[in-house]
Amino acid sequence: MSPRACRRLARVLCHVYPPSWRDRYSEEFVDVLSEMVLTPRTVLDVLDGALDAWANPSGLVLGGRLRLRASVSVVWGAWIVLTAGALIFGQSTEDSPFRRADATHPVAALVYGVYEWCAHLSVVAVVVAGAPLAWALLRAAYTQRRRSAIALVLLPVAAPMAFLGVLVLIAQAVPRSTVPGVGVGPAWFAVLVVLGLLAAALCAAGPALGLRRVSASPGVLRWSLRASVPALALMSVSAAASVCYELALARSDPSFAAGYGRPWWQLAPYALVMAAAGAAAMTSIRRGVRATVPVS
Amino acid sequence: MHDLGRWADPSLLVLTSLADGPKHGYAVIKDLEQSAGVTLGAGTLYAVLSRLEERGWIEPLAAEERRRPYRLTGPGAVALETETRRIHQFAELGLRRLAAIPRPA
After folding, report:
1. Does residue B104 form part of some domain?
2. Which SS3 state, helix, strand or coil, does residue A253 take?
3. Domains in chain B: how many in total?
4. Chain B residues 49-78 within an 8 A CB cutoff of chain A
5. What is the ipTM score, two decimals?
């Protein structure tokens, strides 16, 4: 491999590291890497180092308040992804065949209860974690007369309300199918899913953009980050329970699975997205907490 | 140094290499290849350098083009001395016990 190609490959490999790490080390790291013979072992070593840099960030490369802000945004976004997944799962299993199956499969019913309770408790926990930060941001935005920031912070309330309004309008305007369990039909259901995902994206983006326009004290950010751990943990348990519920039903009642169960290629992406959101959030919390810990 | 976990051994190697004078990353790798027969990967090296720098055991010097040399600090020298003495004592203990074992002729 030519030195130029080596250097290009080294730059590509460097991009698996976190941006804050690259700001500090990328030049010298690329220089070292381009001097070495790039073997699969070298690449694996770089990936291992990058994984470590994400999971155990050095306090030297993390800017305290900026890192905290980024972590709060990532955690909030991940919670929205988990919640959207839980809602879609709930929507797709609320039909009566599932409830009838629960009556004959107590373990599945118990798992479904875990899914529901954890999801509800997680919403309470996220309100507890986010309310002080939202209040601080709204106060700062009001004091600084930043109306756009106020609108952004209020998006997690406004977007679901707007979605519910559209939902009611569609439910009233579109004739319902006479087939039980079909509702407004697949096309309108797809429209509702897209609008729901759009509302979820606005919920996630609003506070993150608001945080960029008005600043919150590190104390409030730190509280929100730490207090979001139970909310995330509960929603992760809820997501895991939802997957277990489907598996339990499919295992205990093959006839039900044949009629209503989802094939693995539908369940697997859901499980993967949920797991990825949980892992991203936990990594970000770790990075945020590390950024606030004084170097010993 | 034990709280460095799996990075403790490469950290000891890097500190030992820097005890010989300031070096940039690639020079540390080459030095360890020649002196200890160990080849550190770039990922491992920088995981270790960032930890040692965070603890104040090494410090970066002004960059020379794209290369940034690092040097051992006072606390780094103390940490290296403590660890190497501990290893030395342990090695001596092992050798004493080995010497006490009767060996077949």
Report:
1. no
2. coil
3. 1
4. 49-51, 53-56, 63, 66-68
5. 0.87
